[in-house]
Amino acid sequence: MSEDHAAKLWDLLIIGAGPAGLSAAIYAGRGGLSALVLDKLGPGGQVALNHLVENYPGFPDGVEGMKLSEEMGRQAERFGAAMEVSEVTAVEIGDGRFSLTTEQGPRQGRALIIASGCAPRELGVPGERELYQRGVSYCATCDGPLYRGKDLVVIGGGNSAIWESLFLSKIARRVTVVHRRDQLRADHAVQQQAFAQDNIEFLWSHIVTAILGEDSVQGVRVRHVATGEEREMQADGVFVAVGVVPQTAFLPEEIARNDNGFVKVNAADLATSQAGAFAAGDVREGAFRQIACAVGDGALAYRSARHYLEGAH
Ligand code: NAP
After folding, report:
1. What's the rounded Cα separation, in Å, for the pair 310 and 313?
2. How far is CA 149 from CA 172, 184, 200, 221, 308, in A?
3. Is ligand 1 within 6 A of the CB of residue 183?
4. With DSSP H G I counted as helix, E B as strand and the rest as coil, what are the percentages for the chain, rounded to 5?
């Protein structure tokens, strides 16, 4: 199958199988375009890491992130989009086409939608990399079940940190949220759930300066942001949830990015600085990083790509 994929000139290449990429793929398939979606992990993106999504319309009782991702993937395939689990490492532009270097060989298309999303941001403290997967994690849904009855630290104050804390509080003995300010950034409704949970504690106005342990995590060192006072806290696991960074390192210079690495777009049609290339979802500058918005972006990017292809005939 991959050899066929290599020989073909696709109408549309879509990098990333999160909600933005899959939404574009559903529209492309239904619209009769040949579309290939590439993702290094398969359908999902960041959504698949959420144990429960409560704010996507149509699911009044919430829906598991993994299930939502899989259903979007199935829907895209049902309408004819091709899917490949393969990492894109480079994009070249020339002769009116986009040439991707992927783990499974070259892929070529006439238009491109970049929907590669974001990856968790590292905290950047001693012990973080050394103890990764030995007590340090960026995904509560993936690793939380390993910590039954344990004491955990979650770092961050956004939606991810608080959702992860809620999930972990059902498994762990105690969850301590270490946040650098004295109020959370997470949505009000989510905050209220966390404040009501007996085994979630908050350590306000502190940063983690080191993750401690030899072979596995034993604790963290924290510092009060105002007084500078430092102390050590025991913990069996540390979940880092301090935001995200865009996955754009594989893009060429022709596709302009801002200082933080997000792809610059024209808000009206999601066009990038390169004709024929569009960006959708969390990877684009100015996104309200929500599933509902990513899905809308995917639809808009599809429409723009379609107009581009029709104009290019
Ligand atoms: P975020 O909203 O950017 O929050 C990052 C948190 O980490 C902030 O509280 C920030 O502190 C803190 N932080 C950043 N750098 C830090 C550092 N070096 N040291 C200590 N703390 C640091 O990121 P996110 O929570 O990953 O969410 C990403 C996006 O996905 C958001 O738009 C979010 O709404 C969305 N999301 C939505 C849901 C949902 O609705 N179900 C679930 C998960 C994520 P400050 O507050 O001081 O800046």
Report:
1. 5
2. 4, 26, 13, 22, 55
3. no
4. 30, 30, 40
Active site residue 118: no
What would the pLDDT profile of 108-123 be if each residue is shown by its tens digit?
A: 999 999 999 999 999 9
Question: Which residue type occupies 143?
Answer: D
Ligand 1 centroid – CA 265 distance (Å): 23
Is the CB–ligand 1 distance for residue 86 below 6 Å? Answer: no
Task: Write the DSSP symbol of residue 7.
Answer: H
Residues 285, 101: Cα–Cα separation, whole Å = 24
Q: What is the mean pLDDT of residues 205-231?
A: 98
The domains found in the chain, sorted by start residue, are: 2-119+244-312 (3.50.50.60), 122-240 (3.50.50.60)
pLDDT for the residue numbered 190: 96
139 in active site: yes
pLDDT (tens digit, 9 = 90+) per residue, 54-95? 889 999 999 999 999 999 999 999 999 999 999 999 999 998
C-beta atoms surrounding 267 within 10 Å: 10
215 is catalytic: no
Residues 93-107: pLDDT tens digits? Answer: 998 899 999 999 999
Give 3's pLDDT tier (boundaries 50, 70, 90). low
> How far is Cα 159 from Cα 8, in angstroms, rounded to an integer?
41
Burial, 228: exposed, middle or buried (Cβ in 10 Å; 0-12, 13-18, 19+)?
Answer: exposed
How many Å lie between the centroid of ligand 1 and the Cα of residue 240?
Answer: 10
User: Of 11, 39, 118, 139, which one is the catalytic site residue?
Assistant: 139
**pTM score, whole prediction:** 0.85
Report the alpha-carbon distance of residue 135 to residue 235 in Å, rounded: 9
Judge if the beta carbon of residue 159 lies within 6 A of ligand 1: yes
Closest C-alpha to 302, from 281, 274, 273:
281
State whether the beta carbon of 241 lies less than 6 angstroms from ligand 1: yes
The mean pLDDT of the chain is 95
